[in-house]
Write a structure and sequence with these properties.
Helices cover 16% and strands 51% of the residues. By secondary structure, it is an alpha+beta fold. The chain has one domain (3-98): STM4215-like. The protein is elongated. The mean pLDDT is 94.
């Protein structure tokens, strides 16, 4: 199974509504998790990559400012909190996850 699909399965265990690169015309349900691949990192030896990891920007969106969902995402391996913001009465927690 592709790593992105493994990450998707982990996120689905946290919340029912998970969206990968959602199009602008989709009506999202809240709480939800949005994620996109936004970087890739490689380690090299002898001029060849021997370790590669994709970085995903994972955003938790919930109306509840005390949502337990961000803590679940933050427990993922190689996860780093990036920022938090609120807009349109929705709270957003943004994380970078290497997977």
């Amino acid at each position: 199974m592709a790593p992105r699909l493994q990450l998707h399965d982990l996120l689905i265990e946290m919340v029912d509504d998970v969206y990968f690169q959602p199009p602008s015309n989709i009506k999202m349900q809240f709480p939800c998790i949005l994620y996109v691949m936004d970087d890739s990192h490689s380690e090299f030896a002898d001029n060849r990559p021997y370790l590669q990891a994709k970085r995903y920007q994972v955003t938790v969106v919930d109306r509840n400012p005390d949502s337990p969902l961000p803590d679940l995402v933050e427990d993922l391996p190689l996860c780093r909190f990036e920022r938090r913001f609120a807009t349109d009465e929705l709270n957003h927690w943004v994380y970078n996850v290497f997977f």
